[in-house]
Specification:
Blueprint: E1 2-5, E2 10-14, H1 19-23, E3 31-33, E4 61-71, E5 79-84, E6 90-95, E7 98-103, E8 110-113, E9 122-132, E10 149-154, E11 157-158, E12 165-171, E13 175-186, E14 192-201, E15 207-217, E16 221-232, E17 245-253, E18 256-265, E19 270-273, E20 277-280, E21 283-284, E22 287-292, H2 305-317, E23 322-325, H3 332-341, E24 344-348, H4 366-381, E25 387-394, H5 402-418, E26 423-429, H6 430-433, H7 438-446, H8 450-457, H9 467-477, H10 480-486, H11 489-499, E27 504-508, H12 513-520, E28 525-531, H13 536-545, E29 549-554, H14 599-607, E30 615-619, E31 638-639, E32 651-657, E33 662-667, E34 670-676, E35 682-688, E36 693-700, E37 703-711, E38 718-723, E39 727-728, E40 735-743, E41 756-763, E42 765-771, E43 785-787, E44 792-799, E45 804-811, E46 818-824
Parallel strand pairs: 22-23, 22-29, 23-24, 24-25, 25-26, 26-27, 27-28, 28-29, 39-46
Antiparallel strand pairs: 1-10, 2-3, 2-4, 4-9, 5-8, 5-10, 6-7, 6-9, 11-13, 12-13, 13-16, 14-15, 14-17, 17-18, 19-20, 20-21, 30-31, 30-32, 32-35, 33-34, 33-36, 36-37, 38-40, 40-44, 41-43, 41-45, 42-44, 45-46
Length: 825
């Protein structure tokens, strides 16, 4: 089928409106927009929303999307299918006033046959009504048509938009067998015989294998054509060698092509056992993973290929080789990026099954929709070599019950029925799964009697709900008590049946169970499906020493909208995980929402054994001594800066991270000591602050392995403007990301000062989003003026469909104006 973009020229309005209201001019404010479009990111944040911090105080709402669409007369007799890659939350789709379908899952695609609804040779009206109800998500969900929309058009005999499968049946360096399954649909009454030609083209552009066969497609039927292709000396796909093949399938009648499709795929094999762990193409592979949410920071949930690719590339550059989509199926654009960059993927079905975590969340629909959701996820993923794991769910409260175990078996079996080539897991949270017997578990872990435990847990009325509650949670989730809970025989009794239902036992924050599980179940393989960032040194040691432990997925690799306050350092009495206005971001992650790496990222890279150059993190000197709440997801409030005016002579806490034997720190050329770092990857120096040059050197086997420098910046006098590209295709969807940083006269980055930066875009482009990485601030990402945070802001510019130039002007008081010219081709 021919794929046609429908992303341009939509009309958008808040609320539900009719076409008659639109025609009569009674529909209120109508905007002309292009997709993808996140309606939520444009809403005014308010402390009054029932969503509160869960969505970063962005409210829900009802929205209407309308498009006038000219349908050619030539399409009569054709099959026309609409594809919506994602609509949040629930929606109704109408064509020419008639209801076509309804959909309730915001993360699965919609394919709707509209052939019988169209008026040929004239204008048609497509309308989508969307309801983003409040308290439906634990994170920022976005709203509306936030992913692309397409039309698929096929003649009487065609290859459907879904159903083509390319499978590696066997592969090594000498040869591979690739099986190609092609459905061929005949919507007519008369049988047709077609020629099917399959060509597999390698990464170097040369033909790797080909086959052609005749197929008779009987009237009103779909025939499945299956062929095995031999590929000699295949270029295998892995996280280290992301080689991609193109599979082109063409069907012809009397040597006249009538339909074709191109599938990008990779040749790779997977094996799994407790002796060797996960093997990709026969090579043991550890998962250096991170969980990610689906939003793209300052542009919200809008799914642009350029944004997904950039985020994936940045995580790959930071040392990750695996992503877990949390907690929903991953976008097609991110899957494409993972294929290209060599990022292994765990795709997740849902955050809830039959028990709600929010009053209006997907548990209200899951019991009746789960089979379709599994089918949708598998169909979307099947030809992507990056996908190696399916997660049946995340932190399911039912995990500690027999019924929960039954649900897990059913979902696992359905995934295996649809795709036997990949493995399943589930993110089990011990505290949540063991909640019904947590008193018994705590008594067993602490040695206390129930009466003693109850007395200890009586809250101080003046402290109820405050920092003490967060600290109590931290004690239960981290440290000896957490380890005792994780390995509790009572917890094993509760979750054992559930964990046994999957190929891999996936544990959230149950690190102590990783080795214990091998003693209890020597055939089992284990994965840290969600782990604390600061636990990486201890955790990765377990991963390296135990073949049955596949790796870990930290929470999280990239900061995100919503779940606000999870990791924000509140120095003003604010409590984490509470409705603390104006918190907007989670405030955690190795990488902030602008794409800048934090010191924890360099610690993790060192632990992973990637490179030997050192990195530096300095605790914020202006926050020293101030009481701050902390959650287990927080590391240190530090940054790579040696610019702290006003704090001369005071002591700075300086971390040096390195994958090396020793490190040495110098201040203005004077050594502050050489320290052993081998095996711990981080050492801390207490340094009297004096402006100048702070330099770290790493040593391996006695020789210098690398060095890094932080230079004190003088007064910020210029705006440093950097775009990740200056040329964009005139497609209406391509993006460039422009960083603006404050610099002194010598070009040193000044993170200390702040400036209100104004952005102006003229010509063949538009401002898609503008903002800083500040996790707790007011303002809109659609504003043209933003204050820098830690010396930076970023703008995202979207190309128009018309070729030409775009002029971006950046200005701030007391700074010279900067101009950037973008070529839109």
């Amino acid at each position: 089928m021919k794929k046609i973009s429908l992303n341009q020229n939509w009309q958008f309005a808040k609320g539900t409106i009719t076409m008659m209201e639109l025609m009569m001019g009674e529909a209120g404010n109508i905007e002309n927009i292009d997709l993808p479009h996140d309606a939520m990111i444009y809403q005014e944040r308010t402390p009054a929303t029932a969503n509160a911090h869960q969505t970063g105080f962005y409210p829900g709402g009802e929205y209407t999307y309308m498009k006038k669409w000219e349908i050619p007369e030539a399409w009569k007799g054709c099959t026309v299918v609409l594809e919506f890659e994602g609509v949040a939350d629930t929606c109704r789709i109408y064509m020419n006033g008639d209801l076509v379908t309804e959909h309730v899952n915001p993360y699965t695609g919609i394919f709707a046959d509209v052939s019988g609804y169209l008026k040929y040779g004239q204008e048609n009206e497509l309308k989508v009504e969307v309801c983003s109800i409040e308290q439906s998500s634990r994170w920022y969900s976005g709203a509306g048509l936030y992913r692309p929309v397409y039309a698929w058009v096929g003649k009487t005999v065609h290859i459907p938009a879904q159903g083509v499968r390319v499978t590696t049946r066997e592969a090594d360096c000498e040869a591979a067998v690739v099986e190609v399954e092609v459905p061929i649909c005949n919507r007519g009454m008369v049988s047709e015989t077609v020629q099917v030609e399959i060509t597999l083209t390698g990464p170097n552009g040369t033909e790797a294998a080909a086959e052609h066969i005749p197929v008779t497609v009987f009237g009103e039927s779909t025939q499945m054509c299956c062929q095995r292709l031999l590929v000699e000396h295949p270029a295998l796909w892995s996280d280290e060698t992301p080689n991609l093949y193109s599979c082109r399938i063409t069907i012809s009648e009397d040597e006249n092509p009538i339909d074709s499709v191109n599938i990008s795929t990779g040749i790779r094999t997977l094996r799994l056992n407790a002796k060797h762990g996960l093997l990709v193409n026969g090579k043991p592979t550890k998962l250096r993973g991170t969980c990610i949410h689906h939003d793209n920071g300052i542009i919200g949930a809008a799914t642009f290929p350029d944004a997904e690719y950039r985020r994936c590339r940045q995580m790959k550059e930071a040392g990750f080789n695996a992503l877990r989509s949390a907690h929903h199926p991953m976008s097609k654009a991110m899957l494409d990026a993972c294929d290209k960059l060599g990022m292994l993927v765990m795709d997740e079905l849902s955050d809830m099954w039959t028990r709600t975590k929010n009053p209006h969340d997907y548990a209200n629909y899951f019991p009746t929709h789960w089979k379709q959701d599994v089918w949708d996820m598998v169909e979307k993923n099947y030809n992507h070599p990056c996908v190696i794991l399916y997660s049946t769910g995340n932190e399911i409260p039912e995990a500690g019950t027999p019924k929960g175990a039954e649900w897990n078996r059913r979902i696992h079996a359905e995934m295996k029925r649809l795709d036997a080539t990949r493995y399943t897991t589930n993110g089990i949270n011990g505290l949540m799964a063991g909640n019904d017997r947590m008193g018994e578990i705590m008594c067993q872990a602490t040695g206390m009697t129930p009466e003693q435990l109850e007395a200890m847990q009586q809250p101080d009325e003046q402290k109820r709900g405050g920092a003490d509650e967060i600290n109590g949670m931290a004690e239960v989730m981290v440290g000896p008590l957490a380890d005792a809970i994780a390995t509790s025989p009572i917890l094993e009794e509760m979750i054992g049946e559930f964990a046994a239902a999957n190929d891999i036992a996936g544990y959230n924050y149950l690190t102590a169970l990783h080795e214990e599980d091998h003693i209890r179940h020597p055939n089992r393989v284990v994965l840290g499906t969600e782990t604390f960032p600061a636990d990486i040194v201890h955790l990765w040691d377990i991963v390296k020493r135990n073949p049955h432990v596949l790796g870990d997925f930290t929470w999280t690799g990239y900061d995100y909208l919503g779940e606000a306050g999870c990791g924000i350092f509140h120095y003003n009495g604010g409590v984490n995980f509470s409705a603390h206005w104006p918190d907007r971001l989670a405030g955690i992650g190795d990488i902030d929402i602008l794409g800048d790496r934090k010191p924890i990222s360099y610690l993790r890279q060192a632990v992973f054994g990637i490179g030997h150059a050192p990195s530096i993190g300095v605790l914020r000197m202006d926050k020293a001594g101030i009481e701050v709440g902390k959650t287990p997801w927080m590391w240190k409030d530090n940054l790579a800066s040696w610019t702290w005016p006003g704090y001369e002579g005071e002591t700075a806490s300086v971390d040096v991270y390195a994958n090396a034997d020793e490190v040495e720190l110098f201040l203005n050329g004077e050594s502050l000591g050489r320290k052993s770092i081998g095996g711990v990857y981080v050492v801390t120096y207490e340094v009297p602050y004096h402006p100048g040059k702070l330099e770290a050197v790493s040593y391996l086997n006695g020789a210098e392995a690398g060095r890094t420098v932080l230079q004190t910046a003088g007064k910020a006098v210029k705006l440093k403007v950097e775009a990740d590209r200056n040329e964009l295709p005139a497609d209406g969807e391509s993006l460039t990301f422009i960083k603006i940083r404050l610099e002194d006269a010598a070009g040193n980055f000044n993170r200390w000062e702040s400036a209100a930066v104004t952005m102006k875009v003229e010509g063949c482009a538009a401002l898609q989003g503008f903002g800083s990485a500040d996790p707790s601030c007011e303002g809109s990402y659609q504003s043209h003026t933003w204050n820098t945070y830690d010396g930076s802001v970023m703008a995202v510019i979207r190309a128009a469909k018309c070729p030409g130039e775009a002029i971006v002007t950046i200005s701030a008081v007391n700074f010279a104006e900067e101009k950037l010219v973008l070529n839109i081709k």
